[in-house]
Amino acid sequence: MALAAACSGAALAAPSKPVVLPIGSVQGATERSPYAGKTVTIEGAVTADMRDGLGGIFVQDAGDGDSNTSDAVFVRVSKEQALQVGQWLRITGTVEEQAAGKSEQSLTTLQAQNIQPATARPLPAALVLSEAPANWEALEGMQVRIPGGLTLAGQDQLSRYGELTAAFGGRLWQPSEVAAAGSPEQAAVIADNNRRRLRLDDANGKREPGAVSYLPAQALLRSGAQLRDVQGIVDQRFDGGYRLQLTAPLQVDAERPQQAPSVPGGLRIAAFNLENYFNGDGKGGGYPTLRGAKTAEQQAAQQAKLITTIGSLNADVAALMELENDGYGPGSAIDQLVRALNAAQGKDGDWRFVDAGQGPGDNPIRVGIIYRASKVSPLGKPAVLEREPFGERSRVPLAQAFRMGRKGTPFVVVANHFKSKGCSEASGADADRNDGQGCWNATRVESAKLLHTWLQGDPTGSGSRDAVLLGDFNAYAMEDPIRTLNADGWQDAFKVAGVQQPYSYVYNGLTGRLDHALLSPGMAARLKGAAEWHINADEADEMGYQGRNVPGPWRSSDHDPLLLGFEP
């Protein structure tokens, strides 16, 4: 069978007897090939043709018996070259090291100069992996199969690059969710995440590829889902990390939690970040707004998802984050949300909102509190803390005392939303210290201290020492702001309830909690149960109202709502 030239000017040569090196010798046992910059000849079978997306093919031989060296290599070949998967070739070319993004790692490649057919022989078998290998470099370019034990960790890069993040042995946890920043334990989590992480890619270097080749139509993807019989080629490019260029459709075992969680206790309190609920001018116009929905149609879709979510939680009180800060009058965001909740519940619709008069604060987004008038009664007026760092940075907290029925024990609900981790304008103590806590950590710590001091002064005037801090603290469970509040006596509701591995947010393939419920000692004694409804964090962005808008509560926000049950 005649094969065309590998590149311009290269012709099929008459059979000759060059020194054919095992591919393992060309790869070597280190990151860089000992033959870099030199011309070599190899023989191997074509295991994958990825010229359309990556500009080359993967070739693998029968092996050199050395487990420290890879038996495969990526070969740059023109699209005009006639070849097919499974064919054995003799290839002469120059060994090059292709930089893997901005990292110091590289992919060993061969720039083909001459290609000849080689004697056919049995195809190399795919290496079966049951756990993360100790040395990915020794598998670079090789075909592997992972029957099970692989978990979908994240899908942040799916629409942009056709890429998923997977992990051996379960989810990848945000290091500062499970270990204190800067501690040896945190370093161990980071190392373990790096060891277990594996990218799954579509063999295409283009951005926004549209349809992803390895995903079946209407595939349900959720972080935490189990992946079966994953097949592909080990590759190292783009970001320096190892990835599989998939060669077979991805098989995913994923299920959505259909029912909202149920918690024991006669008093139920929820918290939910609405992800920028804005409603234009409140009359169907005024779009696009500063944040959130860009059209009235999108806003209607967003609202439908939020109403389904909040209504299904069956809470008596709910603390809300990321509401448009546009007052409390008719047509305001909070007024429209409550009206829609009541309309959806018909004769049982008795939601009310806490009216702080203005704000709280002058940030474009604010916190809010809503409640069921037939279940609880507000005691006195709401209180707000409008002192820096609350205002320009952290959103102003809102506190309201309630009682359930006439004989219920009073309690205070405090809605919170601390400064985010983004680094715009951050400097000094608020700059990123590369300890996993991001920017503005000092501001969040100061927010935590001031919040605690404020609450010790009974700002609602209710006299109640039973309080629950709810909201998006923009800090994971073992970061300084939460540890500061813990040290001041505020107890993690999920720890008190014995919930194992709670989470509410998935970012860059890492799972953790930015959303917390922290209890005073008296409120902790009344706690009966705690749960999160995992309808959002595990879902892809495109499931939301600005994408495919899947019916139901799915991806109603980027945060999961939480629900607590207490003795009244």
Automatic annotation (TrEMBL):
Species whose genome carries this gene: Stenotrophomonas terrae
Gene3D superfamilies: Endonuclease/exonuclease/phosphatase
Pfam families: Exo_endo_phos
Protein name, UniProt field: Nuclease
Domain of life according to the entry: Bacteria
Cited InterPro entries: Endo/exonu/phosph_ase_sf, Endo/exonuclease/phosphatase, ExeM-like
Any one GO MF annotation of this record: catalytic activity
Domain Endonuclease/exonuclease/phosphatase: 295-559
NCBIfam families named among the record's database cross-references: ExeM_NucH_DNase
